[in-house]
Amino acid sequence: MEDLELEGQEVSVGGYNADLVFRGGDSIIVVENMLGSTDHDHIGKLITYAASLNASQAVLLAEDFRPEHRSALNWLNRVSAEDCSFFGLSMKVWRIGDSLPALHLCLDVQPDGWHSARRRRNRGSQIYYEWWRAFLNDLRESDRRWSIPRPSRGAFVDLGSDSHGVMYEASYEEEDEKFAGTAYFKHEGDDGAPQTFTHLQSRKDTVESKCESELIWEPEHQRGWAAVWSSREASIGDPAKWDEARSWQVSFMNRLRDEIESVLDEMDDSTALQDG
Hints:
alpha+beta; five-stranded antiparallel beta sheet; 11 strands; 37% helix; globular
């Protein structure tokens, strides 16, 4: 998206206004800005503006991305034609020492084939691709419950959700050089952390023993979501440690899912007894 020219701000699209519209050569790029976490309203507006303006790229810029909206944009990239791409950017503020705060944009969503030639030249992206390809192969062989996506060239892979709506993600934390696995639980109404998360946390010692890892419990991971996760220190830049780190990450994701499904079974049995 180099050499962009601003076509307009608050560009009229029917009864709505697109925040920013750029032109790059023969391509139209639509940008929808918002404060806070992503929501259905702005996802819908982004799709409407992209369709109405025949955009080649559609960008949603937010403070942070909810897992379901990140999954939605990834899905749009999978089913869209090659000449239409969706991007998700989140905003962070960085400060080094006593310097003034500086805005940093993080690329949360991008299509798999975007700038593939450039990304092949990017060693970091290639390392991620090789890591996730091996990880996903091992995960598929270890447990057929998983819906296996294509290998990512970024720091995480979205492993989808189960029948109860629990979402899973495997990731790498660049700053701390740690591999991680996470399960997300969606809040229901204003009743606090989801029942599944609360029930799981009530068995904390047993769950951590079964997962063979100390877990981080976050009832308010981000607005509308609770999360439980763990990580293991290892550098993705050290291929000699890959087998050990990958073995841990695959095993942890399977064990965590086993414990979550065990809790869900208990909750279903309890509900059935009460109904009986």
